[in-house]
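User: I want to check something. If I give you two sequences, will you return the structure for each one separately, not as a complex?

Assistant: Yes, each is folded on its own. Here is the first sequence with its structure:
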Amino acid sequence: MTALDLNSDLGEGFGVWRLGDDDALLDVVTSANVACGFHAGDAPTMRAVCVSAAARGVAVGAQVSYRDLAGFGRRFIDVEPARLADEVLYQIGALEAFARAAGTSVSYVKPHGALYNATVHHDAQAQAVVDGVKAFGDLPILGLPGSRLLTAAGSVGVEEAFADRGYTPEGTLVPRGQEGALITDTAAVVDRAVRLAESGEIVAIDGTVLAMAARSLCLHGDTPGAVDHARAVRAGLERAGVELVPFAG
């Protein structure tokens, strides 16, 4: 891999509540997955992140979710597909308004949390997400390699990997709350990122080596030491000669 995108979940505050350091992460990443108000985020937060991203040349992506503020979008909801498609479209449109006001635009879409995990195996919800995106426009869709979501997305599907999340031998993410779900050691996160870029590999929790030709690498903004992880990963990738650029740009 000679080029790689670094993405992070940003804008996940709401009202007086704040999560993560958006500005610090925007100095590191090349793409920002901006919460669109369903699992987190509100109008001032969305606009502020879009303004900061535009000033830094960071791509803006819509991080769409179930309507689940109380659960931070981490609970599965059996939404009727037509409604889910409309809610995806609604979230993209809301973020696009703030992106335009900041002089940029929404350039890709990524599901959040439980919706992301559901679309790995749930055909109806995966298709609903794709239908909602297509109703807006021909935007790239970030997803897990081998997921129903990327199958439904076809040519606009973009594979991503996670430097700070554990993988099962089947290539899915270890559920949060289970042992090995989060990787908090900075050196380990950097090693995984560099191995992905150099060899196209991620190691699962049981030692299985997974082939993964991801074009984008996610660094979560809400994990312990997120900013330090991101800075160290970027430095490690640059030392390895990897060009860091938005996949959508």
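And separately, the second sequence with its own structure:
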Amino acid sequence: MADYSFKADGRISDWERDKLRNFCATLEGDIVSLAREFGLKVLVEDLLPYERGYLQNAPSYGSPSGWVVKLNQQDRAEVQNFTVAHELGHFVLHKAHLAGRDIFDGRINRDSQSATDPFIYLEPSDQIMESEANQFATALLMPANQFRPAFSRLAGDQSALAKLFFVTEKAVKRRVAELALG
């Protein structure tokens, strides 16, 4: 699995790339503040148990872009952190797919029979967009130039890395695999 690069992605404008680069330069960044810089408003609400979050076209909420990120209030802060980054990834990478939609989830049709993933992807492109948003979020929250030395310094301790980067251990495991560190 190759490491995702903001620099190489032609869908990202120069001003967006600059904001992303500045965020990745330090571990002090707040993902909600970054989302606001992109014109998104972030709301924490009572969602269905299997919903992490989604983008909603809701100009009445007063966000500059007209879009809001809705997060599940039942999720741990680390999960919400990744969800904001994931939804920001959709907003930045999948602009063309947002046009004419009220809600952008990527996983549209719920399948209540599936215990592991309560959604069915309607189109192969939906799976691709979800994967791209995950790669975006992973690269944003755990930049390679920060993650590699931390991995080495912490001797690969995934729990410590999760705390340092304020993500779940599952996200750390994914990043370790992407960077071929494990």
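Because they were folded independently, the notes below concern the second chain alone. The longest helix spans residues 124-141. DSSP finds eight helices and six strands in the chain.
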